[in-house]
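Model it.
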Amino acid sequence: MGYPSASTPSSQMNLEKRAGYDVWLLVIALALCVCGAIFVLTSSAAHSWRIHHGDSMAIFWNHVGRLAWGLVCMIVLAFVDYHILGKFARWIWFGAFASLIVVLILPQPPGATAHRWIYLRGFSFQPAELAKFALVNYLAMRFAAMCDDPFAFDKRKIYRGALIITFATFVFVLIEPNLSMALLVLGTSSLLFFLSGIRLKPFILVGAASAVPLGLIAWLTPYMHSRLDAFFSGILDPLKTSYHVKQSLIGIGQGGVAGLGLGASTQKHFFLPEPYKDFIFSIVGEELGLAGAVLLLFAFAMLLVRAWQISRRAPDNFGYYLGAGITLAIALSFIINVGVTLGLLPATGQPLPFISYGGSSLMMTLGAVGILLNISRQSQKRSDTADQNYLFV
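Modeled.
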């Protein structure tokens, strides 16, 4: 797990050795951020002009400012030893869980239909984004400790505790209500449990038992029920699908193969609500066409491959589980967003990583990339140390 695989190209290994970290992960992440900034600019101008009284660049500059903070988070976490996160995993999760409670108590702005944001003097933060990665960090710490010394821990006790922590996080995110994030938390943690080697039979039984109350909650919550009803109705009759998804599909259809051209989207002119947020992939498809959308999908696939390779080559079990959890969280966010945009999943509020206009999501995602870079740096250091020891043998 701590050394490059035999299939890794020598040129790639030399590049990583000179840089000291995974260069390609950084390059792809930065390229996606640049792409996101371009499409936030082109998709938000009309809305920004209306919201900010004639300033068509306001939303774009807000995004650039948040992107800058995200890059700061990435740089800091790339150079701070990721093992510190493991040492304070419990406290980080407790802090994130406390914020999930606080957000349910604090008042929300007029017209808000959910308790998802903490507002402090012009600054807003979404606790669920922090809770998602805090849970990944906690589970990585517990599973790594279990693997490092399997005879010192009762596996059943560790799994029970991990399930309780996961369930508590899931429930409080669901209460906000935030169904998409709750499913993302549940999906990421479930895959981490699977990677840890949990027995499938009890795991499947717990999942099946959880599906019933989850479905009941989703059906009884008005906004969740309306979105699920629109989704299933749209399967039988596309004309009955939700307004957002219908406009998204119209935009992608207009793009064709080559697209209408950068900045030439018509759907962004108040047909598609807030096109610079959750449905920004539709604008990519409309302006750059199938070719541009496929290129963006390819970039995401390459980033996820690099992230998974970093996890597999991590110098220890904690690095492996932490990197794998981060990779899974980004992958599921990407799948959910694109799936909704294409009408393959019920409409949710999940942003497209690196691309959508954002604050909490963008900062946390870039911070997660910083952790992956940190893991790759320490893997490279361990590899260099092993090479030096070999020379003196």
